[in-house]
Amino acid sequence: MVKTKILLSGNEAIAQGAIQAGCSFYAGYPITPQNELIAYMAKYMPTPPGTEAPRVFIQAESELAAISMVYGASAAGARAMTSSSSPGISLKQEGISYIAGARLPAVIVNIMRGGPGLGNIAPSQADYFQATRGGGHGDYRLIVLAPASVQEAYNLTQTAFDLADKYRTPVMILGDGILGQMMEPVQLSGRKIKTGLVKKWALSGCAGRKPNIVKSFFLREGGLEEFNLKLQANYALIKRKEERYESFFLSDAKIILVAYGSMARIAKSAMYQLRSAGKKVGLLRPVSLWPFPQQPFNRRNSKVKYLVLEMSYGQMVEDVRLAVNGKNTVDFFGRSGGGIPSEEQIIGKVRKIYHENI
Amino acid sequence: MKIFERCPSLYDVPTHYCPGCGHGIAHRLVAETVDVLGIREKTIGIAPVGCAVVAYDYWNFDCSEAAHGRALAVATAIKRVRPQNIVFTYQGDGDLAAIGTNETIHAANRGENLSVIFINNAVYGMTGGQLAPTSLLGQKTATSVQGRDKLLHGYPLKISEMLALLPGVCYIERVSLHNPQEVLKAKRAVQQAFQNQIDNLGFSLVEILSPCPTYWGLAPQDALEWIKNVMQKEFPLGRIK
N or C: which end of chain B has fewer CB within 10 A? Predict the structure, then answer.
């Protein structure tokens, strides 16, 4: 059992977490700021030729190919992952939709950078809409998990594989360039690599059974609606069971900061500074962005005010507004394109709300 | 004495294909090969996007769909994960030589140990007869109304000849379905492509010139004549590599 604490970047921690979760197939394509991830996989994934259950690394010719390789590997029963950053994730949307449509488990990592277009390589949270609304064509969702530390990136990657298999759905790890690049000590879990999971639906050759078909095409009238209703039932179950969040001082807070990922760390520092100055400020950090955590917004005093902080011009704030459903005031502060809201800016915003309203 | 029977790798169902279409014959060639080689229980087929998307309704073995053009990326992963299985793709000209050109070239260049059945009917069938990368010069389609013009549309793409340049490719042959003699040659080629995979020889591709009477605007018999008299002049039959 590994008990060591080692220093890893967020990208490397995700890769290491995946390997320990039994990821046996990785395909990717280089793009900054997630390059340490593909490099780590290239180094540690491949197994010697002739291995009975091989562990495969492929540098694909494109993001389209990489995600389709993940589709194929998953169809063949492997725990499969790909990773990229924003422009590459846009390309992967084709395959993600097919993966959702074929009910295949898969893990997709997006280490977000600035957009739109080629944008830049600075950290960003501007892909929230794309991640939480499905992103590709059709009526589907993916589970989206947003780590805020390197340790959590490592842990949640393992959770992602378990959830993907449990619900037969794609799961996205949504980080940003800060999380991907920064190094922190990681306590490795004693988790043994899972192999040989039995997936009765997987393609393995039809010895002793009827052929298995992996598909997302339903031509018969009513067939696709029937299938989509099954997908929706699965999503309803995920919503009931898989809301994840972390919270600080919600019980006495007059202003609750809402932020995820790297942004939540800055918000947390600002919150502690404000509390030491006597301001009743709390923090709510969604960990699952889809399903978005509804529970902590329920039954809260309508005088409580929310301040949503994002490295975008306001995407998650829409989910917060849906969650409070008009009962509370929701303010927003965000920067994008490489701009990151600072502690001072957050404190200024909170003091302004305090001054005006409380 | 029984001299002809349905092969176990084909279901006993009618196909949805148009009269005179080549897919029915090509499906059967694959199924016969799978049965002759005794590999039905370890075969995994990749159905394309196009007229043959529901090939798994006819083949009695494990199959996957793939997004349009991505069949060889999907097949690459399945074969790498399950090297003991026999994995093949069945793709049309639009799938393999237009939207999927990148996947095709790179799977071939990696020398993936796969068998590819490439149906070249010089037209997009499922979507209503549009210009394909392999449409002939002068060929009238829904999107080349005056006929394929080299200045507007470029030339028929000879992807098989292009792939033959790659060291990872072990076998390429172009065959045709326009008469029984050629069908027998096609069968031998398909079997060779599968045998190569069993022998771990690398990437094998069989290009099959296949009739599409509906979108060629020809009667089934005339479509076969067109392959013989016109199409195979542009796409000569025989071993390419």
Answer: N
